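Comment thread on ticket #2218

A.B. wrote:
> Attaching the input chain for the structure job we discussed in standup.
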Amino acid sequence: MEAKYLTTRPVGLPTVRNGHGVIHDVNEGETTTLAAPGAGRPRTRYRYSYAIFSTSGFSPEAQDYALAHQISLIDLSAPDFAVLRNLVKTTADTIHAALEVTPAAERPMVREIRAYLRGPLLDMCDAVDLTDTFRVRLDYLAQALHSRSQLGLVLAFPAAPFVLGLASDDLYAFVDYAKAHPTHAVRLRRINQAASHPVWECARRSTRRHTP
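C.D. wrote:
> Ran it. Output below, let me know if you need it in another format.
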């Protein structure tokens, strides 16, 4: 997956085309159980999919290309994802401001910031030594992403080659209901909401709504 935070334009065709090239290379690659030439046997092969997240939507050309090549586009420009967008922007602005006032010799590398954040999010144990200036903000971001209660985003994996981005009005109630009712009837209707693509409301027969 890939994520783009753009403020002035939607994600265009080059990004989606690059994603198609990456996933094509991954799916065509052949690996074996041993590294030595001519040794080992082919490993189990998997069919990987690609998803691109964007805070500013996608251009029509990008959407057409993604549909043709079965690449999932997750549009986070809708009001439902404002909390998530603001969380990312605030953290990035704070980190950037801290980098500007930190002496060059003491600035952490981007890979070090990423490695530190991956620790709590992915249960990785990379030892990355950052100053409190950076750690406090990254710890806050990780905690907010872990809680998820106000971030809105839910990923759905239908019996199709696409991932759907959903926004739930009550995340935990939705998860609890889905666990108790793995199969349940829903209502689908198109709603009038600003986005670079049609927005649909998926609601169970009573009140809970989940907007893709």
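A.B. wrote:
> Thanks. Noting for the ticket: The radius of gyration is 20 Å.
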